[in-house]
Specification:
The complex is a heterodimer of chains A (431) and B (186).
Chain A lengths: L21 E7 L5 E5 L3 E4 L8 H11 L3 E3 L17 H6 L4 E11 L2 E10 L4 E10 L4 H17 L8 E8 L7 E8 L6 E6 L3 E6 L5 E6 L6 E6 L5 E5 L5 E6 L5 E6 L6 E6 L5 E3 L7 E6 L5 E6 L6 E6 L2 E6 L6 E7 L5 E8 L2 E8 L5 E3 L7 E5 L5 E8 L2 E8 L5 E6 L3 E7 L5
Parallel strand pairs in A: 2-4, 2-5, 3-5
Antiparallel strand pairs in A: 1-30, 5-6, 6-7, 8-9, 8-31, 9-10, 11-12, 12-13, 13-14, 15-16, 16-17, 17-18, 19-20, 20-21, 21-22, 23-24, 24-25, 25-26, 27-28, 28-29, 29-30
Helix pairs in contact in A: 1-3
Chain B lengths: L2 H17 L1 H10 L2 H12 L9 E2 L5 E2 L17 E3 L9 H16 L3 E8 L6 H21 L7 E7 L10 H7 L1 E8 L1
Parallel strand pairs in B: 4-5
Antiparallel strand pairs in B: 1-2, 3-6, 4-6
Helix pairs in contact in B: 1-2, 1-3, 4-5
The chains are: A mainly beta (431), B alpha+beta (186).
Chain lengths: 431, 186
């Protein structure tokens, strides 16, 4: 079962880092976000070219969350690096709530020491301070981790910057053999790594709750099959290869089961597969389309897309089966649901005519709010802290990744230079 | 216009369509000329759909010899069925074509066909896989109705992952909502 399959058109690799050129484009600004001053860190020690500036990474992370409004660095009234150099009164007048100062020390080639302090300007005191060591390889991750610490200290919510995302890219030109790739990257799109390449479509990547494995759909055998791949050992195994559809895999929160779509009975229905025992339970049985399952965080229920009322709508059903209940009621195309980690909010794709937007719905009140403007937005995926939603959109009809804060106030596009990017899925917190 | 004139006009337009596949596709969306030619068959009472041999009114040959699927003058050369948005219903104009393919399979039991279902890019990806699967299943049912056996027919759905037209407009979307019949020798 643990056989590694490698053939001519399929390359698995974790070593190969494709450093794709990346353009970050802020498409919707934010009012009412917390002003924060992030002073460029003091660099000391040996003078070497460093791959990234820590304070820049922190600035872009906090800005992307929609919760913070970092001052432009040319608007900083002073550039202190040490605690004793900070004039709190001055910053209070400037209307800044918090401030980040720090230093970046080059100990020797590829060995750095990073320290930072988070200051509460009104209290006039340090509220957080840490020191880390880093190498070129870990520099971005350490920077995201600092962003997480700052975010959590101020908002009270765990940060999700130092996590991973997965997505699918395709290069497709008229008359040329297309190529598909499954990629894993940092949450800001950097450090992208191709973990699977194929000349046939790859679809629907999904993270195991421990962040070690990805399940996905591959058409490498000219039919859909579900595979599970370990991101560390690079081992992959085929999980299902039934007649018809093998699609939409998604791990249960306890990691023991996989919900998926099969059409072995002729029509697409949702099944639950016990990964260890291989026992398969049919969850839905309807003549309409049932697909795109997603678990509630407690694992007790699933939401899914169904065409049983004509147009696709979202339903919820107990993970033990039973009669599904309809969740979305608007007279439009509602599909591709995901539930937030607190179980309170549903995100999904809502289509009106040819325009598809990301919408969220309060599961208790039923109140629906559109978060994006379309025209072809799809595949919404919550950050593990629920603070942001990653989704696929288009930029002059090139598929790009976008992120929107879950209150809809801040939007950003991550434009990779190579091919179409789609089906982003946000990985879990690091363990 | 007399019946004769109408028939010859239809024959002419159908012949033109046969020579230029692009025109055939254009005709599909309008539900106009393609449907008319079917009406023409019925009016003429030739029962093209039921005859196993002979001349189809469109000027295309209908025969089920093994290599008929590669014969550009045979109706079986057309191997793509197009669909409406978010629909798995087979249009009246395709019922006959699919019936011919079903008869061909029933006649040539050593042939197999892959029914590859596709969708346009609108809507969510896995829903489109499910939708395109249903389109292929719709074609499968009609093929089996003609006596083809179930093990001759394989259904595969690619959803929106393999478009033939890369544009983002009605015309590209129309061309991408399709089921392709891909024949393989057993």
């Amino acid at each position: 079962m643990k056989k590694i399959l490698i053939n001519t058109f399929l390359i698995i690799s974790l070593l190969q880092t494709a450093q794709a050129a990346l353009r970050v484009e802020i498409t919707k600004g934010v009012e009412g976000a917390m002003p924060i001053a992030i002073v460029p860190f003091e660099q000391t020690g040996k003078n070497t070219q460093v791959i990234a500036r820590v304070s820049d990474i922190i600035t872009s992370d906090l800005k992307r969350s929609g919760q913070f409004s970092p001052l432009d660095s040319d608007k900083l009234i002073a550039r202190p690096h040490k605690l004793e150099d900070v004039n709190y009164k001055l910053w209070r007048v400037a209307g800044v709530d918090h401030m980040v100062i720090g230093s970046f020390k080059v100990l020797q080639k590829n060995q750095y020491e990073i320290s930072f302090r988070l200051l509460d300007i009104f209290k006039g005191t340090q509220v957080l301070g840490y020191q880390f060591s880093a190498t070129d390889r870990s520099l971005r991750s350490v920077s995201h981790h600092i962003s997480d610490l700052i975010y959590e200290k101020i908002t009270g919510q765990k940060g999700a910057f130092d996590t991973k995302i997965a997505y699918v890219t395709s290069e497709r030109k008229q008359g040329v053999q297309p190529s598909y790739s499954l990629q894993v990257a940092d949450t800001d799109g950097y450090n992208s790594l191709s973990v699977l390449k194929s000349t046939q479509p790859i679809m629907s990547p999904t993270w195991s709750p421990d962040g070690r494995q990805l399940a996905y759909v591959s058409f490498e055998k000219r039919k859909s099959e579900i595979y599970v791949q370990d991101l560390y050992t690079q081992q992959r195994r085929k999980l299902t290869s039934f007649k018809g559809i093998n699609g939409a895999p998604v791990w249960s929160p306890d990691g023991k089961k996989l919900a998926l779509t099969l059409s072995k009975g002729g029509n697409p229905d949702i099944f639950i597969l016990d990964i260890k025992t291989k026992k398969m339970n049919q969850l839905t049985k309807h003549w309409g389309i049932d697909t795109e399952p997603a678990w509630t965080p407690d694992g007790d229920e699933l939401v899914f897309t169904s065409s049983r009322a004509g147009k696709p709508q979202i339903y919820r059903v107990s993970s033990n089966g039973g009669q599904p209940k309809r969740v979305t009621f608007s007279d439009s195309y509602n599909a591709s649901p995901e539930v937030s980690s607190d179980g309170k909010t549903l995100v999904f794709v809502q289509g009106e005519g040819n325009v598809f937007k990301i919408a969220k719905q309060d599961l208790q009140s039923g109140y629906v709010e559109l978060l994006t403007d379309g025209p072809l937005d799809e595949s919404p995926s919550f950050a593990p802290n629920g603070g942001m939603i990653l989704y696929a959109s288009t930029d002059k009809y090139q598929g790009v990744l976008s992120a929107v804060s879950s209150d809809g106030r801040f939007k950003q596009k991550l434009v990779l230079s190579e091919g179409d990017v789609r089906e982003p899925t946000w990985g879990p917190f690091k363990r | 216009m007399t019946t004769n004139k109408l028939l010859s006009a239809l024959m002419l337009s159908s012949l033109l369509m046969a020579c230029a596949p692009e025109n055939v596709k254009d005709a599909d969306s309008s539900a106009g000329s393609a449907a008319q030619s079917t009406d023409g068959v019925q009016t003429g009472g030739l029962g093209g759909a039921d005859s196993t041999e002979g001349s189809f009114l469109s000027g295309m040959t209908v025969s089920f010899e093994k290599d008929a699927i590669n014969d550009t003058s045979n109706v079986l050369i057309e191997k793509t069925i197009y669909f409406d948005y978010d629909s798995d219903q087979i249009g009246a104009d395709y019922q006959t074509l699919i019936a011919h393919h079903g008869k061909y399979l029933a006649t040539n039991s050593d042939m197999r066909v892959r029914l590859e279902g596709h969708a346009d890019e609108r809507g969510s990806r896995e829903y489109n896989v499910a939708l395109a699967n249903r389109r292929a299943q719709s074609v499968r049912r009609l093929v089996l109705f003609q006596g083809a056996s179930a093990d001759q027919v394989e259904v595969i759905s690619y959803g929106e992952e393999k478009p033939v037209a890369l544009g983002h407009d009605d015309e590209s979307w129309r061309l991408n909502r399709r089921v392709e019949l891909v024949y393989e020798a057993r």
